[in-house]
Write a structure and sequence with these properties.
Chains A, B, C, D: The chain crosses the membrane at residues 12-31, 51-71, 91-112, 118-135, 161-177. Chains A, B, C, D: This is TMEM175 family protein. Chains A, B, C, D: Keywords: Ion channel, Ion transport, Membrane, Potassium, Potassium channel, Potassium transport, Transmembrane, Transmembrane helix, Transport. The structure is a homotetramer of 208-residue chains. Chain A has 208 residues and is an all-alpha fold. Chain A has one domain (7-202). Chain A contains eight helices and no strands. Chain A has helices spanning 2-26, 41-50, 52-76, 84-109, 114-138, 150-159, 162-176, 183-202. In chain A, helix 3 runs parallel beside helix 5 and helix 7 packs antiparallel against helix 8 (183-202). Chains in contact: A-B, A-D, B-C, C-D.
Chain lengths: 208, 208, 208, 208
């Protein structure tokens, strides 16, 4: 049944891709068109300035969900089998991802309030933990392809700690300084990028 | 034309995956950002507590639609042919799935009222019956792959009775106890999971 | 470059599938959750009865767009090449499909008024003509696979006249009898089904 | 690991296709169903006439995003490798694409005002520059397939200047003549079409 697994695994990843793609694109629909009182440039610039937290929230959430997709893409490229347990761990992760448009809109609408900021970080923390659990379950026999080295797996597992750690930090910071509390999350993609570039440079995994 | 069937069947499943993925992700857009009167923690916790039925409805619908996708994924992995009759049975199922964001929002907005709860259970009952009809029509010659055993088919057909049975039970319960009437649906994924694990343990189908 | 064409053609069809899938699933988000004055069954049944045109519009549009997807699926399964001209004919068709959620909501919100009904039929008429143009352009050398018979092509071209004819009829009827004017569209899927079954029975093309 | 790259590259393109497809289909949901005061034809025609900027904005954005997808499709068909740097350049482009439903709605709702028109052109300018950066980075070793000629690459790079140039022109024009400022964007697809047809005619790349 090995020949039956590959296309089915492909379908599982495409379903996941679709959920990631829809969640990441739905982030924009919570930004509503403003109707400023005046029609001059000053009124418009003021109206757009009021939307800045929404623009910022869109970019932050897009980058974080994009990074989650890139990690998912990387891990599933290393697998050649799966089973229902993996499907459900994957669905649990997708649930946290599909919830992001709400959390992102909540945080963007109330950008300096404690509970919305904590709620947003909590969504990412849950997503990060579910991602770690999925990757931990998936990156081993019998799911893992035979040609993947232990070093590669160790690197990915280390990298997948970034999201839960940074969102926990963001959650704690939001208790005292809601708003700037997102700083750890903003730094996270840079960390991921740096890690990705480091890995590419060493040549262990040339791509993915 | 056998070589022409496989990619076309793949396209049919990807279209289905896309509809499942969009419906499951649209569940969140009916949850609206609250605007509490105060800005303190108490006002926010109160506002989020009022959203609890929406969060609950999101999780319940996500798990049920996710289970429907997992079943669809399992069944279509066993096919190697299809025809227009199968396409239309499939489209009928997808119609019930695409309707779920409305039913879920209706039930979440009015979590303790009889008709919305019954409406939600009815949507799932129709979806469950259409799924049973699709699987019954698909899991046989000439659609079924030659290497699929009769035992596998019997198991899947038995499993696909879970959704119509549980949603019928939920529909009837909603007449007297709307709200707790969702209990059978909450138990359903566990039943599916247990069945899936049972099947995996016996080794008949190692995955999916 | 023949080996480079197949995966690219596949990608073109998957992009089309995604647009069809999103448009067909977005049909539901224009149905808004009612908030009846009372909480008894009578108030709820009245509220749901008022939504009947929306439920009807959802089903009608789902079936019509589903039939358009099934035809697109059938035709693209017969191709093995494409070029930019085909891409743009395809994008023109997808534009009419992507516009359907608006037309469907307009017609469902004002189910007995002339202009909304004509607007809906016009959207389908334009979609039907763009579909006919795409199929006419695609079902010939150098796009068509070598093993497709002239009889198959003739059948598909005849079938693809159904949508423009029925929506033109619906458009004209809407001038005098808006509402019942949708009858030709309701009959169309049956016609398509009948044709599809007829083709299957004769055995010329065993499956889509 | 060359055999592992192809399906992973395919998944990257399908994820991109999904984001393009969702963004292009979400353009319609910002067009709201009108509720005219009267029910006669005159009231309806007036109501639909007021929606004309929305219809125009939908068509313009659909064609521009469609052209961006067609260019993305063309370029990724020439690759056989990728790496994290390409993934992030691609995600940056997708972010600009996913933002289009907001910019398009802003421009359509305020069709003759300076700042909304400039904002729309700016979104396309950023998207065009990110697209140029992605293509510049992708159309070279080690990503490029061995059978792609330098002439093909030069043509595509020249073509991908069209969007940033035309949107910059549109941005500048919007300062003095908001509204007609979209003219360069309307002409752009024709330019792209002309170029595509020119390429096909010379026979260098028969399709894509």
């Amino acid at each position: 049944m090995s020949q039956g697994q590959e296309p089915q695994l492909e379908r599982l990843t495409f379903f996941s891709d679709a959920v990631f793609a829809i969640a990441i694109t739905l982030l924009v629909i919570e930004i509503h068109v403003p109707h400023p009182d005046g029609h001059d440039d000053a009124a418009w610039l003021h109206a757009l300035a009021e939307l800045l937290p929404h623009f910022f929230g869109f970019v932050l959430s897009f980058v974080v969900v994009g990074a989650m997709w890139a990690a998912h893409h990387r891990v599933f490229g290393l697998l050649h089998r799966y089973d229902p347990a993996l499907i459900w761990r994957n669905l649990a992760l997708l649930m946290a991802v599909a919830f992001m448009p709400f959390s992102s809109a909540l945080m963007s609408t109330h950008p300096a309030e404690r509970i919305p900021e904590m709620f947003y970080a909590l969504n990412l923390l849950v997503g990060g933990l579910l991602q770690y659990r999925l990757f931990r379950g998936a990156l081993r026999a019998p799911y893992l392809r035979g040609d993947v080295t232990g070093a590669e797996v160790a690197t990915i597992r280390r990298r997948s700690l970034a999201l839960p750690m940074m969102s926990l930090l963001s959650f704690v910071l939001a208790i005292w300084i809601p708003g700037p509390s997102n700083l750890p999350l903003m730094l996270m993609p840079l960390v991921v990028l740096a890690l990705a570039r480091g890995i590419r440079r060493t040549g262990a995994t040339p791509a993915t």
